Backbone:
């Protein structure tokens, strides 16, 4: 069973680059590609139509002079910012030279983009793992392969390519652990019994206008009890998420959990962190491949 | 290193409480510079916690993250890849991990985004405490329907504009006497709804919005559990 699972994950990503430089390039393309998509999908210019007092600049935007903060909210400035940010993220995704310049610029612009959205209303975490992964990749040379402009000089050490992948995976996995630890610390054993789940199901379904689903959840208790029964397992997988960096077999189970968890969260809570899911589907199998390179004998055994 | 990271995180988390003043747990929810969101009963069903309880919670949180982090830092995945790196890369890697972990434990200030706490669905919530805001538009043609405000501004999806309006509603309802502060909050809320109306009307000139009414839904649990809505106020868009 375990071997089948491992084989399945490996065959799904059979076309993966063979060397560490290529794997770092693949992760770079995926991460900055996702940043580009996130910034391109919705126009920013309509934000200028909101009353200015709703705009409370945070993060990089809070560091700007007060007069400049409100200049950002002009439709033309927002449109130019969006186009430039998307182009730079695309250059970083492609591994254009000089890579470090485009990668750092893409990180700054993506952070500013996300800070801009969070300057209206509440703080959420949907893109935070993606930001951490982008930062990790900007710190290291991740554009020597898997790019139209590969490095022609002598290859660097394997560790320089492996480290950003491990760091990006840590950026993806550590936040899961953080929320699980906080949930237990804040709510005690209620976090493990899922006592609040029905209320959150109903609140979220009614907030987005899915009235029939909200009232349906209220009525047949079996569905709610089934969801509550999974709460301890969900909490355990969240808390131990960083162990997917350490144990190869656990990584495969965790990936399966992540797929089911995110899809069920989408169905019942109307929350889909699709960026985190896609990142997990790219980065965790890449970690497997890195491990195979380090331990060829084990990899042969697993296959 | 694990201990150093956690000590830093704990110190930063404890620091705001040293003067023993009651401060909001986090600012991100504020609207228009007001911390109204954090005072409403709807949003803080658990209420304020004692210092001892907060300390115990912090200790549990730090311990759980510490155990997991310790195992990761001692693993071969880290051991095989990081010690061989040039010093500047090791420092940069350690700084990034440190910032992520410290942010997860102590990052309650939104200005250090993205190194912030991740606390979704951590509070207990009972069905009886549930309050759901709904915005119903009445159009010039006379028809009425629920407004999906987030569809108007896709950049703020999912639910950012809806949550902002819903939090304004909670903040106003939390001001029992509607004094000067309540009036100011209501005025901002009214202006926001009018802006939503203007945005809608620019996109749908054929049948523009004339009025937006705000409804609050509560859950009644009995033989036939259901959601009941009542209108709390309405705003003319023009």
Residues:
């Amino acid at each position: 069973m375990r071997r089948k699972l491992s084989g399945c994950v490996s065959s799904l990503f059979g076309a993966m680059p063979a060397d560490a430089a290529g794997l770092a390039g693949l992760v770079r393309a995926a991460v900055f590609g996702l940043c580009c998509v996130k910034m391109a999908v919705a126009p920013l210019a309509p934000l200028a139509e909101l009353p200015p007092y709703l705009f409370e600049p945070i993060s990089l935007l809070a560091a700007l002079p007060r007069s400049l903060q409100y200049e950002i909210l002009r439709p033309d400035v927002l449109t130019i910012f969006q186009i430039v940010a998307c182009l730079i993220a695309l250059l970083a995704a492609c591994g254009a030279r000089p890579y470090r310049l485009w990668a750092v610029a893409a990180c700054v612009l993506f952070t500013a983009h996300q800070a801009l959205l969070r300057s209206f209303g509440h703080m959420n975490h949907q893109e935070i793992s993606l930001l951490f992964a982008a930062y990790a990749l900007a710190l290291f040379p991740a554009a020597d392969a898997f790019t139209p402009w590969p490095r022609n000089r002598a290859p660097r050490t394997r560790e320089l390519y492996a480290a950003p992948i491990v760091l990006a995976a840590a950026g993806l996995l550590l936040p899961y652990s953080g929320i699980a630890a906080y949930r237990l610390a804040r709510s005690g054993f209620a976090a493990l019994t899922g006592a609040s789940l029905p209320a959150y199901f109903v609140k979220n379904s009614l907030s987005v206008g899915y009235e029939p689903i909200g009232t349906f959840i209220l009525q047949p208790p079996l569905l709610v009890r089934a969801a509550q029964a999974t709460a301890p397992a969900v909490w355990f997988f969240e808390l131990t998420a960083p162990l997917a960096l350490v144990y190869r077999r656990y990584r495969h189970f965790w990936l399966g959990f992540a797929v089911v968890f995110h899809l069920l969260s989408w169905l019942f809570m109307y929350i889909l962190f699709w960026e985190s899911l896609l990142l997990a589907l790219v980065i965790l199998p890449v970690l497997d491949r890195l491990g195979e390179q380090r331990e060829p004998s084990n990899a042969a055994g697993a296959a | 290193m694990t201990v150093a990271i956690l000590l830093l995180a704990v110190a930063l988390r404890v620091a705001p409480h040293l003067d023993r003043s009651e401060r909001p747990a986090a600012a991100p929810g504020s609207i228009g510079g007001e911390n109204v969101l954090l005072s409403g009963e709807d949003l803080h069903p658990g209420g304020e916690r004692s210092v001892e309880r907060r300390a115990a919670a912090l200790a549990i949180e730090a311990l759980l993250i510490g155990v997991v982090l310790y195992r990761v830092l001692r693993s071969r995945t880290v051991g095989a890849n990081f010690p061989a790196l040039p010093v500047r890369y090791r420092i940069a890697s350690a700084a990034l991990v440190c910032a992520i972990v410290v942010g997860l434990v102590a990052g309650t200030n939104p200005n250090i985004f993205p190194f912030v706490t991740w606390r979704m669905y951590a509070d207990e919530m009972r069905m009886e405490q549930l309050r759901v805001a709904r915005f119903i538009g009445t159009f010039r043609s006379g028809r009425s329907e629920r407004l999906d405000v987030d569809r108007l501004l896709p950049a703020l999806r999912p639910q950012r504009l809806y949550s902002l309006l819903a939090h304004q509603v909670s903040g106003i309802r939390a001001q029992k006497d509607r004094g000067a502060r309540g009036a100011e909050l209501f005025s901002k809320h009214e202006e926001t709804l009018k802006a939503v109306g203007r945005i809608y009307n620019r996109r749908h000139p054929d049948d523009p919005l004339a009025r937006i009414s705000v409804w609050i839904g509560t859950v009644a649990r009995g033989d036939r559990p259901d959601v009941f809505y009542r209108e709390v106020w309405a705003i003319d868009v023009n």
Q: What stands out?
A: Residues 20-47 of chain B have pLDDT under 50 and may be disordered.
